[in-house]
Specification:
The protein has helices spanning 46-79, 84-95; strands at 11-18, 21-28, 38-43. It has 100 residues and is α+β, with helices and mostly antiparallel strands.
């Protein structure tokens, strides 16, 4: 079974009103194609605004962080037989859903 791809990055969020209730909407960024794809809605609270910011930051940084971790792992594999740092990088990549 093929794993579905997520909506193109970058994602962003905005605060708005729907039916008089405050909402936070997470959507694909305006530079993504197709643009404006709705990802999620949250009720507008300070905690949910922080959650939306965290989700956006983590998702938008994911690919760069994975790339850097893979490069660091490759360097460590060339210069060391065993390393606690190498093991931690492998665990972090696995936690991010990437096969190191």
């Amino acid at each position: 079974m093929l794993k579905a791809k997520h909506t193109a990055l970058p994602w962003e969020y905005f605060k708005g009103n729907a039916n008089g209730k405050g909402l936070i909407r997470i959507e694909s960024g305006i530079d993504a194609r197709p643009s404006g794809i709705h990802i999620a809605s949250l009720t507008r609270t300070p905690e949910n605004e922080a959650n939306a910011d965290f989700i956006i930051t983590a998702c938008n940084a994911h690919e760069d962080l994975v790339s850097v971790a893979q490069k660091a792992l490759a360097v460590l594999e060339e210069v060391e037989a065993e390393s606690f740092l190498r093991d931690e990088i492998r665990q972090a990549l696995a936690k991010a859903g990437v096969n190191p």
